[in-house]
Structures are given as structure tokens and as C-alpha cells.
Design a protein that fits this description.
alpha+beta, Pdz3 Domain
Amino acid sequence: MQRAVAAIVLGAFLAVGAAWAQVKSGKGGYEQLTLFNEAFERIRQDAVEPVAEGKLIGAAIAGMLAGLDARSAYISESAFRALQAPAKEDAGTLGLVVTIENGQLKVISPQDGSPSALAGIGPGDVIFAIDKEPVYDLTLAEAERKLRGPVGSEVKLTLRRGAGKPVDLTVKREAYKLQAVTARVEAGNIGYLRIAGFDAATQPALAGAVQDLRQRTGGKLIGIIIDLRNNPGGVFESAVAVADAFIDQGDIVVVKGRKPNSLKRISATPGDLARGMPLVVLVNGGTAREAELVAGALQDNRRGVLLGTQTFGESSLESVIPLPGNGAIRLTTSRFTTPTGRQVQGKGLSPDLVVMPLKLEKLAHGGRREADLRGALKNTDPIAPDGKPPANVPTSAPVSAPAQKAPSVATGDMGSADDEQLSQATDVLRGLALVTNRPAP
């Protein structure tokens, strides 16, 4: 039995050997494995209560991954099987995207129209308890499972906004499916496209929405506003397809792994849904991950003007690596940069035009960015002593200090009559249309 356990330990640690690189003492990885084996034996033999060997191994792997970054995690065998199983028809959700920071469960963003958004949950809210059970010792996967349940069932959340007192909120789970793309006409001849996430249906829905906007304006569309605020990301390939839809040529994104030969450039294919019309892209602190990929691609290719506030700042890409018979690990294996090489991780994208939301009193709790998370991957871009961006950063992508800690607009306020950022985007788009003097396509 001991040999079998040792084999499992060795296999698991070799799968994530980067975490066992040489340490300050100069000892190599295999010597460190010997140290681990000694600690394992002492715990197994001398702990005041008997501990199952499988539990020890799982805890060791989980702890090792937890020390890497906020996204890497161990997935137990039962959780991995549940992950692979088809979604149940009676499965309900809150439509809430969360993360773990310093043992706390925090909201990145509620999805548009979801039960959590309708209940008023916002970016940056801290969840202390789910159905009166504390969440401080839960992994992200465990917390997400607790948030799911049968359709129509209720979940009681204890949460806090900013420095306010904890409040109890009851939310009913629904068979919610994100509507990734919505569209409408603004001011008679401006298209407004809300992209709330990325899945397999996003790009086809986007193409249909642009065609619909042309028809509704009688072919007199002068430009498009793309709203990526409070978009927490989604499927990587879908985001690439969305960016490609508006870029006729040039790179969309650069993906970098640990090894030098892992660098991959993804380029646009010919064709532009907007046929060269000006684009204004709305971003804020809730614009994260794959949404930042799209925003960065449009900005670097000078295809769209970014308006709003600093984005979330996360560009890590995870891989789920099975450990046969022992679950799997979710490991950050690469990250993406913008086409010109600007790193998004821990920094975010600065808008070309900084516009703050008006209703700041509703957003006192603010928003969390990737750089604030425990174990966040560091941005390795060089920083000039005066705080200015490096010389190789395009002038169309300025770094704006005031935008760095700006709060995110509430999901319910986006697109409303009080949406100052949308109002400013409309004015900017009209100006761009006059400058380009393009005839209606």
C-alpha cells in the first residue's frame, strides 16, 4: 500500500513539477520529494487522529496548487465526474461569477438578467455564508456547487458591500441561460451591441444582430457601440471569433506559455461585420479575461476607441489535466497578451477616453481586479521610473492613473437613460463618423 501511495505522490508531483523547482537551499526537486515523503509518514503514523492516505494526498496537491495563483486548484474524483456529466434539466443557477480572495468568496460580476443581477448583487460583494454555512474554508469549486441547485429552490446568502454591515439576501435559483448578445438602435442611426459573455452561440448571434441593426436603420447606420462592461469572459475561441468579426487583417491575440516555443499568434481572417464603420467599445472594472482579449485586439488594431474605466486585468488561461483515478488539476498553463505585446495580467487595459459612471453612490463597494487576488500572476511589463508606459506601447493606448481604481457601473444601470458612459460613447461615435465621412454602407 505504501508503494502505491508513493507512486501516486510521485505521479501527481511530476505533473506539476514546476511547483517543485529548486529552492533557496539549493536542494533539487527529488530531494524535496523525499522531504515530503518524510512529512507524509510522520503525519500518517503520529497524527492524534487517523488520517486516510487519500485525504492526505488530496490535501497536499490542493495546497500545492493553491500556492500558485488564484485560479489553479485540485478537483477531487467526485467533483471531476460531476464536471464531466451532462447538465441536469432541473439544475438551477444564480448566474453569479465569483472568485476566492484570501479565503473570502467575492463576486466578479453577476451575469446580465440573472437571478443574482435582479437581486441587486454587484461586483465586489463579499459572500460570508451560503444557507447559513460559512464559506471561508471552501474551495472555489465547492462554493460554486453550493450556489447551484434545483430550479425554483432558494439560497440564502449573507454578504457585505464595502464597509457596510452584512446583510441577508434570499435568491431563487432559475434555469437561467445567458443571452450573450443584445442589440438596439441609439439616436436613430447608431447601433448598440451588448456582449455579456462568450459561448458557442455568441459570434452567430453577433452577425445576426449587426444585420438587424442595418435593417432597422434603413441602411443608414453610422457606427456601433460595443458594450463589454461587466463581461466576465467565457469561451476563449468564441472571444477570438468576436474580435475577428470586426478586424479585417492583423493579429487578434498572442498566447504565451512557459516554454519559449509555446508562443502562438492568432490572426484575423478577411472580413469586417461593420464594413469599416467606427466602433466605440465600453469597458470598466468588470471587463475581464476574454472580454479584455476582444477590447485589446480592437484597440491595438486601431479598430475601436475604448471608453470607460480600467479593465479587470486577468489574462490567464487554465487547462484541466486529469489524474487518472484521482480527479484532476486545474492549472494555469498560459496567458494572453494584446497583439502588440501589452500584458493584461494584473494591470488591465487603459481606455483611450476615461469616463466615470455618474451613479457612484450605488457602487460604494467598488470592484475587484485580478491584481487584488491572492496569488495573482504578476505583470512583467517594464515600468518606467516616472510611471509612464514603455516606449513600445502604442500611443492609442495610454495609461490613465485615475481609471485604475474606478468603480464598475451596476449591471442594471447599463444602457439606461442615466448611463453617462453610453451617452458619451454616442457623442464620440458621431464625431468619429463626421471625421471619417463615410457614406452609409
